[in-house]
């Protein structure tokens, strides 16, 4: 199949304002013949609510650990290497288990898999609070695997149900991811202090939102299952340079994000902040991501491609990281805001590229699996490298080189991935 220039994601039906959200949801759900009994508006908002609640639960398991990492390490007697491994394993599992997502979806249906994995995620978060060191590592691995599977499936759902409005919906999805990360980063230490000064209860609390999301996702779990009786094979992705550029950009910008999730509080504590202060700075930085998480994909589709937006977001990310690492502490909040704006837009654009570069939902699902499976495996090396360099040098200054190298390569990959093209892949029934 020849590669053609890809139109803007909403070229056929532009979404000019966020007020169009209800209309696009109604349009996306209008062809669902399995639930004709329910009013269209109710179905539309149930779908939106379900997607948002699922997305809210895809980061707390990762961002809740960082503010408590020193306390957990002291309590369990973890070495610096073990603490580094604890920040790396969940990210590695995001990539290792991502290829399971399309296999499970074909067997059980996408919506049912999301429901089952949400319940697994809740159990994994609870497990981290039990059985000491064994439970901590086992729960972290299972949580990373759960997030990896769900994260692959949701872009495919958005491409299928919101094909003409995916820019707006990917922004909403990413905004919910950022909000969940920010809430966990800022609230975990105060929760632990409130709950008998127990880090285990503070971490375990985040199992409850996952169970709530599963309850609200139930109406979706009985829908569209018949569509999965027909299997599709997608070929050509692994040979396509554009698909690899999307994958590399996804992995490298994610590496910087997980360095922030895993190590930014420790870096700030090393610079003189208390754990509560460090957690609040990280939370503030992540919550600012809401602005660009929603706006960057929408704005990027107003132009001919996404290259300028990618360069801008990655440049802001690097500036914020260097500011948090080297600049005087009296300007720390300003640099944290710059960092958040950059990372929110960079991640949202990475997810949007998966949809923009795909011709149909089947290609999008498989490109999502490739970009997140391989990309998150690459991403896990960033937190690990920071831990190794910190242990070797006894300080944090040298990790600036890691930020710079990752950021420059990410910009180079983004310049390729941001071109208005489709990946050269074919989907066919089997």
UniProtKB/TrEMBL annotation:
Keyword vocabulary terms for this entry: Membrane, Transmembrane, Transmembrane helix
CDD domains referenced in this protein's UniProt entry, alphabetically: MFS_NIMT_CynX_like
Keyword flag Membrane: yes
Transmembrane segments: 40-58, 78-101, 113-131, 137-158, 170-191, 203-221, 242-264, 276-296, 308-329, 335-356, 363-386, 398-422
Alphabetical list of InterPro entries matching this protein: CynX-like, MFS, MFS_Cyanate_Porter, MFS_trans_sf
One Pfam entry name: MFS_1
Key word Transmembrane helix present: yes
PANTHER family in alphabetical order: 2-NITROIMIDAZOLE TRANSPORTER (PTHR23523:SF2), PTHR23523
Name listed for the protein in its UniProt record: Cyanate transporter
Species of provenance: Pseudomonas versuta
